[in-house]
Design goal:
This protein has 418 residues and is an all-alpha fold. Helices cover 71% and strands 1% of the residues. Helix 2 packs parallel to helix 4 and helix 3 runs antiparallel to helix 4. Keywords: Membrane, Transmembrane, Transmembrane helix.
Length: 418
Amino acid sequence: MRPGAVTVGAVHGAALLLGAAGLVHTLWHGLAEPGNALAFGALIALGELARRGARPGEREPAPLAAAGALAYALLGDDAGAATTHGVLQIVAVVCAGGLAGIVPHIARGHGPDLDHLARRLLTVGFAALCFQPLYNSGTVTGHLGLGAAYALFLVLVLGLTGLCDAVLAALLLRARTAYPYGPLLRDELRALLGIGSAVCATGVVMALGVGAAGLWALPVLAVPLLLTQVSFRRYAAVRTVNRQTIASLARATEIAGCTPPGHARRVAALSTAVGRELGLGGAELAVLEYAALMHDIGQLSLVDPVAGGATALLPADQQRRIALLGGEVVRMTGVPSAVAQVVERQADPYREQPQAARIVRAVNAYDDLAGEDAAAALEALELLRLGTARDYHPEVVACLARVLARGGTPGVTSVPTG
Protein backbone atom coordinates (compact mmCIF):
# COMPACT_ATOMS: atom_id res chain seq x y z
CA MET A 1 0.00 0.00 0.00
CA ARG A 2 1.30 3.44 -0.91
CA PRO A 3 2.27 5.76 1.98
CA GLY A 4 -0.27 8.31 0.72
CA ALA A 5 -3.08 5.76 0.95
CA VAL A 6 -2.01 4.95 4.51
CA THR A 7 -2.17 8.64 5.46
CA VAL A 8 -5.62 9.12 3.92
CA GLY A 9 -6.86 5.93 5.55
CA ALA A 10 -5.53 7.03 8.94
CA VAL A 11 -7.25 10.42 8.77
CA HIS A 12 -10.54 8.93 7.58
CA GLY A 13 -10.30 6.20 10.22
CA ALA A 14 -9.72 8.71 13.01
CA ALA A 15 -12.72 10.76 11.86
CA LEU A 16 -14.88 7.63 11.64
CA LEU A 17 -13.95 6.51 15.14
CA LEU A 18 -14.56 9.99 16.55
CA GLY A 19 -17.95 10.29 14.85
CA ALA A 20 -19.01 6.80 15.94
CA ALA A 21 -17.94 7.48 19.53
CA GLY A 22 -19.92 10.73 19.55
CA LEU A 23 -23.08 9.11 18.19
CA VAL A 24 -22.92 6.09 20.52
CA HIS A 25 -22.26 8.26 23.57
CA THR A 26 -25.13 10.61 22.72
CA LEU A 27 -27.59 7.80 22.02
CA TRP A 28 -26.65 6.11 25.27
CA HIS A 29 -26.77 9.17 27.54
CA GLY A 30 -29.33 11.26 25.65
CA LEU A 31 -29.13 14.86 24.46
CA ALA A 32 -28.23 17.68 26.81
CA GLU A 33 -30.12 20.88 25.86
CA PRO A 34 -31.97 19.24 22.94
CA GLY A 35 -33.17 22.63 21.71
CA ASN A 36 -29.62 23.81 21.16
CA ALA A 37 -28.63 20.53 19.55
CA LEU A 38 -31.60 20.64 17.16
CA ALA A 39 -31.02 24.30 16.23
CA PHE A 40 -27.32 23.89 15.49
CA GLY A 41 -27.86 20.53 13.77
CA ALA A 42 -30.46 22.14 11.49
CA LEU A 43 -28.09 25.02 10.74
CA ILE A 44 -25.30 22.60 9.79
CA ALA A 45 -27.70 20.60 7.60
CA LEU A 46 -28.90 23.80 5.89
CA GLY A 47 -25.31 24.80 5.20
CA GLU A 48 -24.58 21.42 3.65
CA LEU A 49 -27.76 21.56 1.58
CA ALA A 50 -26.71 24.93 0.18
CA ARG A 51 -23.22 23.79 -0.66
CA ARG A 52 -22.10 23.12 -4.19
CA GLY A 53 -19.73 20.32 -5.22
CA ALA A 54 -16.17 21.28 -4.42
CA ARG A 55 -13.57 21.27 -7.16
CA PRO A 56 -10.08 19.97 -6.32
CA GLY A 57 -8.17 22.58 -4.36
CA GLU A 58 -11.20 24.41 -3.02
CA ARG A 59 -11.17 24.93 0.72
CA GLU A 60 -14.68 25.38 2.05
CA PRO A 61 -17.75 24.57 -0.06
CA ALA A 62 -20.11 24.96 2.96
CA PRO A 63 -19.00 27.95 5.07
CA LEU A 64 -22.37 28.24 6.82
CA ALA A 65 -22.17 24.63 8.02
CA ALA A 66 -18.56 25.16 9.15
CA ALA A 67 -19.43 28.34 11.05
CA GLY A 68 -22.41 26.65 12.73
CA ALA A 69 -20.31 23.66 13.75
CA LEU A 70 -17.58 25.87 15.22
CA ALA A 71 -20.16 28.02 17.02
CA TYR A 72 -21.66 24.92 18.67
CA ALA A 73 -18.20 23.75 19.69
CA LEU A 74 -17.56 27.12 21.37
CA LEU A 75 -21.03 27.55 22.90
CA GLY A 76 -20.73 28.23 26.61
CA ASP A 77 -23.94 30.04 27.56
CA ASP A 78 -27.46 30.06 26.14
CA ALA A 79 -29.16 33.37 26.96
CA GLY A 80 -27.01 33.67 30.07
CA ALA A 81 -27.54 30.09 31.30
CA ALA A 82 -24.53 27.73 31.30
CA THR A 83 -24.73 24.77 28.90
CA THR A 84 -23.76 21.21 29.79
CA HIS A 85 -23.23 19.52 26.44
CA GLY A 86 -19.81 17.94 26.06
CA VAL A 87 -17.28 17.23 23.34
CA LEU A 88 -18.81 13.93 22.19
CA GLN A 89 -22.31 15.43 21.86
CA ILE A 90 -20.87 18.25 19.76
CA VAL A 91 -19.23 15.70 17.47
CA ALA A 92 -22.49 13.72 17.26
CA VAL A 93 -24.59 16.79 16.35
CA VAL A 94 -22.07 17.92 13.71
CA CYS A 95 -21.94 14.40 12.29
CA ALA A 96 -25.73 13.99 12.22
CA GLY A 97 -26.32 17.47 10.76
CA GLY A 98 -23.67 16.93 8.09
CA LEU A 99 -25.06 13.53 7.10
CA ALA A 100 -28.60 14.94 6.90
CA GLY A 101 -27.39 17.73 4.66
CA ILE A 102 -25.52 15.54 2.19
CA VAL A 103 -28.31 12.99 1.58
CA PRO A 104 -29.91 15.10 -1.22
CA HIS A 105 -26.50 15.48 -2.85
CA ILE A 106 -26.03 11.71 -2.79
CA ALA A 107 -29.51 11.25 -4.27
CA ARG A 108 -28.50 13.51 -7.19
CA GLY A 109 -25.35 11.46 -7.74
CA HIS A 110 -22.97 13.99 -6.19
CA GLY A 111 -21.42 12.03 -3.36
CA PRO A 112 -19.71 13.75 -0.42
CA ASP A 113 -16.04 14.60 -0.35
CA LEU A 114 -14.75 12.23 2.33
CA ASP A 115 -11.70 14.40 2.95
CA HIS A 116 -13.96 17.38 3.61
CA LEU A 117 -16.16 15.41 6.04
CA ALA A 118 -13.16 13.95 7.88
CA ARG A 119 -11.58 17.37 8.31
CA ARG A 120 -14.87 18.84 9.55
CA LEU A 121 -15.25 16.23 12.28
CA LEU A 122 -11.63 16.31 13.40
CA THR A 123 -11.30 20.09 13.50
CA VAL A 124 -14.62 20.61 15.29
CA GLY A 125 -13.62 17.92 17.77
CA PHE A 126 -10.32 19.73 18.29
CA ALA A 127 -12.07 23.06 18.92
CA ALA A 128 -14.53 21.49 21.34
CA LEU A 129 -11.73 19.71 23.19
CA CYS A 130 -9.81 22.98 23.55
CA PHE A 131 -12.84 24.90 24.85
CA GLN A 132 -15.49 22.76 26.54
CA PRO A 133 -13.43 21.17 29.38
CA LEU A 134 -11.98 24.55 30.34
CA TYR A 135 -15.38 26.24 30.24
CA ASN A 136 -17.30 23.50 32.04
CA SER A 137 -14.71 23.44 34.85
CA GLY A 138 -15.12 27.21 35.32
CA THR A 139 -11.48 27.91 34.47
CA VAL A 140 -12.25 30.23 31.54
CA THR A 141 -14.93 32.35 33.18
CA GLY A 142 -13.11 32.35 36.50
CA HIS A 143 -9.96 33.86 35.03
CA LEU A 144 -11.30 35.80 32.02
CA GLY A 145 -14.90 36.62 32.86
CA LEU A 146 -17.32 37.09 29.94
CA GLY A 147 -15.93 40.30 28.46
CA ALA A 148 -13.33 41.14 25.83
CA ALA A 149 -10.79 38.68 27.24
CA TYR A 150 -13.31 35.86 26.80
CA ALA A 151 -13.91 36.83 23.15
CA LEU A 152 -10.15 36.94 22.53
CA PHE A 153 -9.88 33.44 24.02
CA LEU A 154 -12.50 32.21 21.52
CA VAL A 155 -10.56 33.82 18.68
CA LEU A 156 -7.39 32.10 19.89
CA VAL A 157 -9.12 28.71 19.96
CA LEU A 158 -10.44 29.27 16.45
CA GLY A 159 -7.00 30.33 15.27
CA LEU A 160 -5.57 27.04 16.53
CA THR A 161 -8.49 25.21 14.92
CA GLY A 162 -7.82 26.91 11.59
CA LEU A 163 -4.18 25.88 11.83
CA CYS A 164 -5.27 22.31 12.58
CA ASP A 165 -7.53 22.29 9.53
CA ALA A 166 -4.76 23.70 7.31
CA VAL A 167 -2.35 21.00 8.50
CA LEU A 168 -4.92 18.27 7.79
CA ALA A 169 -5.86 19.69 4.38
CA ALA A 170 -2.23 19.94 3.28
CA LEU A 171 -1.52 16.45 4.64
CA LEU A 172 -4.38 14.90 2.67
CA LEU A 173 -3.48 16.77 -0.52
CA ARG A 174 0.16 15.74 -0.09
CA ALA A 175 -0.94 12.12 0.27
CA ARG A 176 -3.08 12.26 -2.86
CA THR A 177 -0.78 14.26 -5.16
CA ALA A 178 2.76 13.78 -3.76
CA TYR A 179 3.31 17.55 -4.02
CA PRO A 180 5.76 19.01 -1.45
CA TYR A 181 4.12 19.54 1.92
CA GLY A 182 5.59 23.00 2.59
CA PRO A 183 4.03 24.84 -0.38
CA LEU A 184 0.72 23.05 0.16
CA LEU A 185 0.60 24.11 3.81
CA ARG A 186 1.53 27.68 2.87
CA ASP A 187 -1.31 27.72 0.33
CA GLU A 188 -3.78 26.47 2.95
CA LEU A 189 -2.64 29.09 5.46
CA ARG A 190 -3.14 31.82 2.85
CA ALA A 191 -6.69 30.58 2.36
CA LEU A 192 -7.39 31.17 6.05
CA LEU A 193 -7.17 34.90 5.37
CA GLY A 194 -10.08 34.66 2.93
CA ILE A 195 -13.22 32.61 3.51
CA GLY A 196 -11.53 30.90 6.47
CA SER A 197 -11.34 34.12 8.47
CA ALA A 198 -15.02 34.86 7.66
CA VAL A 199 -16.06 31.40 8.86
CA CYS A 200 -14.07 31.75 12.10
CA ALA A 201 -15.36 35.26 12.79
CA THR A 202 -18.96 34.19 12.18
CA GLY A 203 -18.48 31.18 14.46
CA VAL A 204 -17.29 33.43 17.31
CA VAL A 205 -20.11 35.93 16.79
CA MET A 206 -22.70 33.13 16.72
CA ALA A 207 -21.39 31.62 19.96
CA LEU A 208 -21.37 35.01 21.70
CA GLY A 209 -24.75 36.00 20.22
CA VAL A 210 -26.49 32.83 21.41
CA GLY A 211 -24.82 33.21 24.79
CA ALA A 212 -26.28 36.70 25.18
CA ALA A 213 -29.63 36.53 23.35
CA GLY A 214 -30.42 32.84 22.97
CA LEU A 215 -31.15 30.84 19.84
CA TRP A 216 -32.97 33.78 18.23
CA ALA A 217 -29.55 35.14 17.32
CA LEU A 218 -28.78 32.18 15.03
CA PRO A 219 -30.97 33.01 12.01
CA VAL A 220 -30.02 36.68 12.15
CA LEU A 221 -26.31 35.87 12.16
CA ALA A 222 -26.62 33.06 9.62
CA VAL A 223 -28.27 35.14 6.86
CA PRO A 224 -25.12 37.12 5.81
CA LEU A 225 -23.03 33.96 5.49
CA LEU A 226 -25.80 32.16 3.63
CA LEU A 227 -26.00 35.05 1.15
CA THR A 228 -22.22 34.91 0.81
CA GLN A 229 -22.46 31.21 0.06
CA VAL A 230 -25.08 31.80 -2.64
CA SER A 231 -22.92 34.55 -4.17
CA PHE A 232 -19.91 32.24 -4.09
CA ARG A 233 -21.89 29.61 -6.00
CA ARG A 234 -22.63 32.16 -8.72
CA TYR A 235 -19.01 33.24 -8.83
CA ALA A 236 -17.93 29.61 -9.11
CA ALA A 237 -20.37 29.06 -11.98
CA VAL A 238 -18.93 32.07 -13.84
CA ARG A 239 -15.40 30.84 -13.20
CA THR A 240 -16.31 27.39 -14.53
CA VAL A 241 -17.68 28.92 -17.73
CA ASN A 242 -14.52 31.01 -18.13
CA ARG A 243 -12.33 27.95 -17.71
CA GLN A 244 -14.38 25.98 -20.23
CA THR A 245 -14.05 28.87 -22.68
CA ILE A 246 -10.29 28.94 -22.23
CA ALA A 247 -10.07 25.17 -22.67
CA SER A 248 -12.10 25.44 -25.89
CA LEU A 249 -9.81 28.17 -27.22
CA ALA A 250 -6.80 26.02 -26.35
CA ARG A 251 -8.26 23.10 -28.35
CA ALA A 252 -8.58 25.36 -31.40
CA THR A 253 -4.89 24.80 -32.22
CA GLU A 254 -5.44 21.03 -32.10
CA ILE A 255 -8.58 21.18 -34.25
CA ALA A 256 -6.72 23.34 -36.77
CA GLY A 257 -3.90 20.78 -36.88
CA CYS A 258 -1.32 23.23 -35.48
CA THR A 259 -0.46 21.13 -32.41
CA PRO A 260 -0.71 17.41 -31.55
CA PRO A 261 -3.84 16.20 -29.73
CA GLY A 262 -3.63 16.63 -25.97
CA HIS A 263 -0.53 18.87 -26.08
CA ALA A 264 -2.14 21.90 -24.40
CA ARG A 265 -3.77 19.74 -21.72
CA ARG A 266 -0.51 17.94 -20.94
CA VAL A 267 1.45 21.20 -20.75
CA ALA A 268 -1.19 22.74 -18.46
CA ALA A 269 -1.28 19.74 -16.11
CA LEU A 270 2.50 19.45 -15.88
CA SER A 271 3.00 23.22 -15.56
CA THR A 272 0.58 23.30 -12.63
CA ALA A 273 2.44 20.45 -10.95
CA VAL A 274 5.77 22.22 -11.41
CA GLY A 275 4.23 25.47 -10.14
CA ARG A 276 3.09 23.72 -6.97
CA GLU A 277 6.55 22.24 -6.60
CA LEU A 278 7.98 25.76 -6.76
CA GLY A 279 5.54 27.03 -4.12
CA LEU A 280 3.00 28.86 -6.31
CA GLY A 281 -0.59 28.87 -5.14
CA GLY A 282 -4.02 30.41 -5.52
CA ALA A 283 -4.25 33.06 -8.22
CA GLU A 284 -0.70 32.39 -9.42
CA LEU A 285 -1.57 28.78 -10.25
CA ALA A 286 -4.74 29.86 -12.05
CA VAL A 287 -2.77 32.28 -14.26
CA LEU A 288 -0.17 29.59 -14.90
CA GLU A 289 -2.79 27.02 -15.89
CA TYR A 290 -4.60 29.39 -18.26
CA ALA A 291 -1.36 30.54 -19.87
CA ALA A 292 -0.21 26.95 -20.32
CA LEU A 293 -3.52 26.03 -21.98
CA MET A 294 -3.23 28.97 -24.41
CA HIS A 295 0.53 29.07 -24.91
CA ASP A 296 0.36 27.89 -28.55
CA ILE A 297 -2.61 29.98 -29.66
CA GLY A 298 -0.30 32.32 -31.59
CA GLN A 299 0.16 29.54 -34.18
CA LEU A 300 -3.36 30.27 -35.43
CA SER A 301 -1.99 33.54 -36.87
CA LEU A 302 0.68 31.82 -38.96
CA VAL A 303 0.31 31.34 -42.71
CA ASP A 304 2.41 28.16 -42.66
CA PRO A 305 1.91 25.93 -39.61
CA VAL A 306 4.92 24.73 -37.63
CA ALA A 307 5.81 21.13 -38.40
CA GLY A 308 4.30 19.00 -35.66
CA GLY A 309 3.49 22.14 -33.67
CA ALA A 310 6.88 21.89 -31.94
CA THR A 311 7.83 25.53 -31.35
CA ALA A 312 10.74 24.51 -29.09
CA LEU A 313 12.68 23.45 -32.20
CA LEU A 314 12.30 26.83 -33.95
CA PRO A 315 14.90 29.63 -33.97
CA ALA A 316 14.60 32.08 -31.07
CA ASP A 317 13.23 34.94 -33.22
CA GLN A 318 10.43 32.78 -34.60
CA GLN A 319 9.53 31.52 -31.13
CA ARG A 320 9.32 35.11 -29.90
CA ARG A 321 7.16 36.15 -32.88
CA ILE A 322 4.67 33.32 -32.21
CA ALA A 323 4.62 34.21 -28.51
CA LEU A 324 3.85 37.87 -29.25
CA LEU A 325 1.09 36.86 -31.67
CA GLY A 326 -0.32 34.59 -29.00
CA GLY A 327 -0.30 37.41 -26.46
CA GLU A 328 -2.29 39.61 -28.83
CA VAL A 329 -4.87 36.86 -29.39
CA VAL A 330 -5.21 36.21 -25.66
CA ARG A 331 -5.78 39.92 -24.97
CA MET A 332 -8.66 39.94 -27.44
CA THR A 333 -10.39 37.07 -25.65
CA GLY A 334 -10.97 39.05 -22.46
CA VAL A 335 -8.75 36.77 -20.37
CA PRO A 336 -6.89 38.57 -17.53
CA SER A 337 -3.88 40.51 -18.79
CA ALA A 338 -1.54 38.50 -16.54
CA VAL A 339 -2.26 35.44 -18.71
CA ALA A 340 -1.43 37.37 -21.89
CA GLN A 341 1.84 38.57 -20.36
CA VAL A 342 2.92 35.01 -19.61
CA VAL A 343 2.01 33.85 -23.12
CA GLU A 344 3.87 36.65 -24.88
CA ARG A 345 7.00 36.33 -22.71
CA GLN A 346 7.38 32.56 -22.83
CA ALA A 347 10.09 32.82 -25.52
CA ASP A 348 12.24 35.45 -23.75
CA PRO A 349 15.58 34.54 -22.11
CA TYR A 350 14.71 33.05 -18.73
CA ARG A 351 16.54 35.79 -16.77
CA GLU A 352 13.99 38.29 -18.15
CA GLN A 353 10.90 36.11 -17.66
CA PRO A 354 8.37 35.99 -14.82
CA GLN A 355 8.20 32.68 -13.00
CA ALA A 356 5.09 31.44 -14.80
CA ALA A 357 6.62 32.08 -18.23
CA ARG A 358 9.75 30.14 -17.23
CA ILE A 359 7.59 27.18 -16.28
CA VAL A 360 5.49 27.22 -19.45
CA ARG A 361 8.57 27.48 -21.65
CA ALA A 362 10.35 24.53 -20.03
CA VAL A 363 7.29 22.29 -19.88
CA ASN A 364 6.27 23.12 -23.46
CA ALA A 365 9.77 22.25 -24.66
CA TYR A 366 9.69 18.97 -22.74
CA ASP A 367 6.34 17.95 -24.26
CA ASP A 368 7.45 19.05 -27.75
CA LEU A 369 10.54 16.86 -27.46
CA ALA A 370 9.08 13.89 -25.57
CA GLY A 371 5.39 13.91 -26.45
CA GLU A 372 3.89 10.56 -25.46
CA ASP A 373 7.07 8.60 -26.22
CA ALA A 374 8.50 7.17 -22.99
CA ALA A 375 11.81 6.41 -24.69
CA ALA A 376 12.29 10.09 -25.56
CA ALA A 377 11.51 11.38 -22.06
CA LEU A 378 15.03 11.08 -20.62
CA GLU A 379 16.58 12.55 -23.76
CA ALA A 380 14.15 15.49 -23.69
CA LEU A 381 14.96 16.22 -20.06
CA GLU A 382 18.67 16.05 -20.77
CA LEU A 383 18.28 18.56 -23.61
CA LEU A 384 16.50 20.90 -21.21
CA ARG A 385 19.37 20.57 -18.72
CA LEU A 386 21.84 21.44 -21.47
CA GLY A 387 19.78 24.54 -22.28
CA THR A 388 19.87 25.97 -18.75
CA ALA A 389 22.67 28.35 -19.73
CA ARG A 390 20.20 30.60 -21.54
CA ASP A 391 16.84 29.10 -22.48
CA TYR A 392 15.52 27.27 -19.40
CA HIS A 393 15.75 28.24 -15.75
CA PRO A 394 17.82 25.63 -13.85
CA GLU A 395 15.46 25.54 -10.86
CA VAL A 396 12.42 25.02 -13.10
CA VAL A 397 14.15 22.16 -14.93
CA ALA A 398 15.14 20.59 -11.61
CA CYS A 399 11.55 20.83 -10.34
CA LEU A 400 10.28 19.39 -13.61
CA ALA A 401 12.64 16.44 -13.19
CA ARG A 402 11.37 15.81 -9.66
CA VAL A 403 7.73 15.92 -10.77
CA LEU A 404 8.44 13.51 -13.63
CA ALA A 405 10.40 11.16 -11.38
CA ARG A 406 7.36 10.93 -9.08
CA GLY A 407 5.17 9.91 -12.00
CA GLY A 408 4.27 13.28 -13.48
CA THR A 409 0.53 13.78 -13.97
CA PRO A 410 -2.13 11.69 -15.75
CA GLY A 411 -1.46 11.61 -19.48
CA VAL A 412 2.07 12.98 -19.16
CA THR A 413 5.13 10.93 -19.97
CA SER A 414 7.14 10.42 -16.79
CA VAL A 415 10.84 9.81 -16.34
CA PRO A 416 11.96 6.63 -14.61
CA THR A 417 14.06 6.97 -11.47
CA GLY A 418 17.47 5.47 -10.96
